[in-house]
Design goal:
Layout lengths: L3 H8 L6 E10 L7 E12 L18 H6 L1 H4 L3 H23 L3 E2 L5 E2 L11 E4 L2 E5 L4 H11 L1 E9 L12 E10 L4 H22 L1 H7 L12 E3 H12 L11 H15 L3 E5 L12 E2 L2 E5 L1 E6 L2 E8 L4 H10 L8 H8 L5 E7 H9 L47 E7 L2 E7 L5 H8 L18 E4 L2 E4 L12 E3 L12 H8 L9 H14 L5 H7 L11 H17 L1
Parallel strand pairs: 3-7, 9-10, 16-20
Antiparallel strand pairs: 1-2, 4-6, 5-6, 7-8, 8-15, 10-13, 11-12, 13-14, 14-15, 16-17, 18-19, 18-20
Bound molecules: FE2/S2 (inorganic) cluster (2 copies).
C-alpha cells in the first residue's frame, strides 16, 4: 500500500476489526493464497469493543487450555481450531453423500423421548409439562421403526448420555451418525455398509478438507475393501496370550486391550480399522440379535479405528415375540415400549444398523487425546456454552453464589476417581483443573513438570491408559477411571528404571527439567519398538523439548536402555 496515512490508520485498528476491501486482485505466486491486492481502499464495517483475549496471529495458540475454552468464540477462529471443525463438516458431508448414493433416506427423530433407549441410569430426565421425559440417548427406536417405512435410513443428530463425568473417551452430549437398514442376512451385511460409511467420511475429508488436513498434519486412513475381522472370543484369547493380562471371560474389552488390537491390526494386516464381532449378549441392549448356535454371544460388532472403538452396531431382533421374550428375560415390562413394539407386531424385515460418534472420529483422526477437543463449543462440565447452563456432575442446573473475585458462577466440583502408579485416588476437583495440577498439587507427584503454557514443551508428559499425553492438555475430570503413570511410577523398590539409569549414564540430561517428560515419552517408544532406530526415537520425542542438553545424548540414552527395558518389563 502506497498511502502512509492509510497504513497508519489501519495500524490503529484492533485485531478482528471487520473490513471491506475494494481493490484490484492480481495473481501472484509469492502472495499468500496466490493473490495480491493493488490500490486497496479499506472501509471499516465493524469495530470490536475490545481487543481479543487470544493471540490469533500466532501459528500455535499460546494460551492455556482453560483460557482457550473460556474464550471459545474467539479461539475457534484460530486456523488450527477451525481446521478441526472443517474436518468434521467435510467428514459429515462424505457420510451423507455415501448414504444418499446407497439409497438411504435421511430422517430427523425426536430428542425428547418417553423412555430410555439403552436402559441404565445414564439418561437426562426433563420435565415435560408435568410428566417425566428424557433427552434421547440415541435415535435407535425411531430408526428401527422407520426401517419399516423406508427400508434404509440414516440420521445425523445430537445424543445425550448422563455419564457422571465426561471422560477422555466419552461426552455427555455428542453428534451421532446413525444408520439402519432392512433385508439383511445378518450383522455382516451391516458391517459391509458400515465400511461404506467410513470410506465416505474419508473421501469427504479428502475432497473437501485438503487444506485442513495439511495444516493439522493428518494422515487419512486407507479403508480396505475387506476390513479385518476378529470374533470377540478370539480377540480375548489373543490379548491374553500376548499380554498375559486377564481378558478371557470379561464381558467387554478394556481400553488398553482395544489399543492392543489396533496395533495387532496394523502389524498383521497393515490396517487402521478392525471389526470385532460377537460381543457377549450380557453387554448389549435387549434388541440385539443373538449369535445363532452360541446365544451367549451376539450378532453385533464394534469397529476399532487405530485402537479406539469408533462405531457400535449389529443385527436387531425383528419378531414381536422375540421382543417380548427379550424384555421379560431382563425383567422389563413391555408397557413403556408400546409405541416401539407396534413396529414389530405389524411386521418388520430382518434389519440392523450402527452408530458413529463424530467427535471420536475427529479426535482419533487428529490425534487429540480427549474427545472434547473434537467438540466445537462444549468440552465438559463448566465449559462455556452459547447459552450459559451451569451444571453439576449429574447435569442438574445449580446456581452458586458469585465467586468473591467477581468471576460469576462457580462450577460445582466433580468427583474423579483414578489410578496413579497403581494406587487409586478419589478427589473432588474443580471442573477445569488440569491433570498436571492434580498430580503435582493434590497428589504431590512433582516429578511431572510444567515448562510452558502453550502445550509445546512436553515436560508434563505422562502415560494415560497407555497413551502418551501432555498432562497440561487434559482436564483432571476427564481422567476418570483411567490408569495414569508418572515418572515416580517407573522406579521399582527403589531401583531406577533402565531408562532413568541410561539418561544418567549417557549424560542425557543437564538441568533435568525436561527429563521426566522425555523418559515417559521414551517408555512408549520402546513399547512400540523394542529396538528403535535413531529416526524412530527422534520422531517419538518430537513433542518434548530440551533447552540444554541437545538431543544426541538423549537418543543414545534411549538406545542404551532399549534391550534392558524388554527384560525389565
Ligand atoms: S507444560 Fe505441558 S507441554 Fe509444556
Ligand atoms: S536437561 Fe535441561 S531442559 Fe532438558
Amino acid at each position: 500500500m502506497d498511502d502512509p496515512s492509510a497504513v497508519l490508520e489501519l495500524g490503529r485498528l484492533l485485531p478482528e476489526t471487520v473490513l471491506q476491501v475494494d481493490a484490484v486482485a492480481r495473481a501472484s505466486e509469492q502472495a499468500p493464497g496466490g493473490v495480491e491486492l493493488h490500490e486497496p481502499v479499506f472501509t471499516v464495517l465493524a469495530e470490536p469493543a475490545a481487543a481479543p483475549p487470544i493471540e490469533l496471529r500466532r501459528p500455535i495458540l499460546k494460551e492455556s487450555l482453560p483460557t482457550i475454552l473460556d474464550h471459545a468464540p474467539v479461539a475457534l477462529r484460530h486456523p488450527h481450531r477451525r481446521a478441526t471443525f472443517e474436518l468434521a463438516a467435510a467428514s459429515l458431508a462424505g457420510f451423507r453423500a455415501a448414504f444418499d448414493g446407497l439409497g438411504f433416506t435421511e430422517i430427523q427423530t425426536p430428542k425428547l423421548v418417553a423412555s430410555a433407549t439403552e436402559g441404565g441410569a445414564d439418561v437426562f430426565p426433563v420435565d415435560y409439562f408435568g410428566r417425566r421425559a428424557y433427552l434421547a440417548q440415541s435415535p435407535q427406536f425411531f430408526k428401527q421403526m422407520l426401517v419399516g417405512v423406508f427400508e434404509r435410513v440414516y440420521e445425523v443428530g445430537p445424543v445425550f448420555r448422563a455419564e457422571p463425568h465426561d471422560t477422555s473417551r466419552h461426552l455427555a452430549e455428542y453428534v451421532s451418525l446413525d444408520a439402519e437398514l432392512g433385508f439383511i442376512e445378518d450383522h455382516r451385511t451391516v458391517m459391509g455398509v458400515a465400511r461404506e460409511a467410513v470410506a465416505g467420511m474419508v473421501e469427504g475429508a479428502r475432497q473437501r478438507a485438503g487444506r485442513s488436513l495439511e495444516l493439522l498434519g493428518v494422515r487419512l486412513p486407507d479403508v480396505p475393501a475387506a476390513i479385518p475381522t476378529l470374533h470377540f472370543a478370539e480377540a480375548q484369547e489373543r490379548i491374553e496370550q500376548a499380554t498375559s493380562e486377564r481378558a478371557v471371560g470379561e464381558p467387554d474389552l478394556a481400553p488398553a486391550h482395544e489399543r492392543w488390537l489396533g496395533e495387532w491390526a496394523r502389524r498383521e494386516h497393515g490396517a487402521d480399522f478392525l471389526f470385532v464381532e460377537g460381543y457377549p449378549m450380557a453387554k448389549r441392549p435387549f434388541y440385539t440379535h443373538p449369535e445363532p448356535g452360541r446365544p451367549e454371544y451376539s450378532n453385533s460388532f464394534d469397529l476399532l479405528f487405530r485402537g479406539l472403538e469408533l462405531m457400535t452396531g449389529g443385527q436387531r431382533l425383528h419378531r414381536y415375540d422375540e421382543y417380548l421374550a427379550a424384555l421379560a428375560a431382563r425383567g422389563q415390562s413391555p408397557e413403556p415400549f408400546e409405541g416401539y413394539l407396534q413396529a414389530f407386531r405389524y411386521g418388520m424385515p430382518p434389519h440392523g444398523g450402527f452408530a458413529i460418534g463424530l467427535e471420536r472420529w475427529v479426535a482419533q483422526l487428529t490425534g487429540a487425546h480427549n474427545v472434547s477437543q473434537g467438540h466445537a463449543l462444549s468440552a465438559g462440565p463448566g465449559a462455556p456454552r452459547p447459552v450459559s447452563l451451569p451444571k453439576g456432575p449429574q447435569g442438574v442446573g445449580r446456581r452458586r453464589p458469585p465467586h468473591p473475585s467477581g468471576g460469576g458462577l462457580m462450577p460445582d466440583p466433580v468427583r474423579v476417581s483414578l489410578t496413579v502408579n497403581g494406587r487409586t485416588y478419589e478427589r473432588d476437583v474443580e471442573p477445569r483443573l488440569l491433570l498436571v495440577h492434580l498430580l503435582r498439587d493434590e497428589l504431590g507427584l512433582t516429578g511431572t513438570h510444567i515448562g510452558c503454557d502453550t502445550s509445546t514443551c512436553g515436560a508434563c508428559t505422562v502415560r494415560l491408559d497407555g497413551d502418551t499425553v501432555k498432562s497440561c492438555t487434559v482436564f483432571a475430570f476427564s481422567a476418570e477411571g483411567c490408569d495414569v503413570q508418572t515418572i515416580e511410577g517407573l522406579t521399582t523398590n527403589g531401583e531406577l528404571h533402565p531408562l532413568q539409569r541410561a539418561f544418567h549414564e549417557e549424560h542425557g540430561l543437564q538441568c533435568g527439567y525436561c527429563t521426566p517428560g522425555m523418559i515417559m515419552a521414551a517408555t512408549a517408544i520402546l513399547e512400540r519398538s523394542p529396538n528403535p532406530s535413531d529416526e524412530e526415537i527422534r520422531t517419538g520425542l518430537e513433542g518434548n523439548l530440551c533447552r540444554c542438553t541437545g538431543y544426541h545424548n538423549i537418543v543414545e540414552a534411549v538406545k542404551a536402555a532399549a534391550g534392558e527395558v524388554a527384560t525389565h518389563a
